[in-house]
Amino acid sequence: MARVVVNLPGQARRGEVIEIRTLAGHDMETGFRRTQLGELIPRNIITRFTCSYNGVEVFRADLHPAIAANPLITFTTVATESGTLEFRWTGDNGFSATHTATLTVV
Amino acid sequence: MTTRRQFLVLACGGLATGVQAQLPPNIAALRQAALQEAMRKVTGGAEVRRGRVKLDLPPLIDNGNAVPLEVTVESPMTPADHVRAIHVFTEKNPQPNVIGARLGPRAGRARLATRARIADTGIVVAIAQMSDGSFWSDSVNVVVTLSACLEDGLI
What we know:
A: mainly beta, 53% strand, B: elongated
C-alpha cells in the first residue's frame, strides 16, 4: 500500500468551494529511461485518479508519463453535505491506493 | 593488437550509429505531428479558440523533472455552463499528453494544479472543453535548463 497524503479542510460552510490537495508516493517510471546496460526500464505509472463525494464521482484525471514522480493533484469541489470523500489511485502492475476523508458541512 | 587508427575508426563508427539510432533527423517534425495528433484526439477536429483558459507555469524552468503548473478556466461552473474537461500537452516530450482531467459543476471552480515533467524548451498547451462542446486553449513558451529524461539523449 502506497503512502498517500490528502489535505482538505475538515469543516466547511454549505456551498463553499474547498480546495483538495492530494499526493501519492510513486516513482512514476516513464518507460523511456534506460539502465546503464541500455535496457529499457518498463513503464510503471499511476494512470488514473478519482475522487468520489458520498459515492458520486466529482473529479477524475488520467495521468501520463509526463506527470512528475509522487504525483500532486490539486482541485476543488463544492461542500454540499457532510459525508466522506474517497480518493483512489490506480496504475500499472496492479497499483491501487485509496484514502477516505470526512467533511463536516455546517 | 588494435592500432590507434583501428580503434578510432571503430569508436567513431560506433558513435555514429548509436547517435543515429537514438535521434531521427526529423525529430522536431515528428514531435510536432504527435502533439497535433494528440490534440485532435481530444477535440475531434473541432475548432480550438484561444482565451478563457489560463495556463500558469514558470517561464524559466531549472529542473524539468517537476514543473508546477496550474490551469484556471473562466467559467461560472453551473449545471448549465461548466468546464467538462481540461487537458495539458507538451511539445517536446516523447509523448505529448501530460494530464487529462474530467470535472463538472460540482467542482465549483475550474482549477487544476499538478507537477509535470518537461523534456525541453518548447510550448505547453492547455485545452478546456466546455459543457456546450466548445474548446478553448492557452499556450506558454517555456525554457528548460535541465531536462527531464536527460539520460536518454532525447533532445
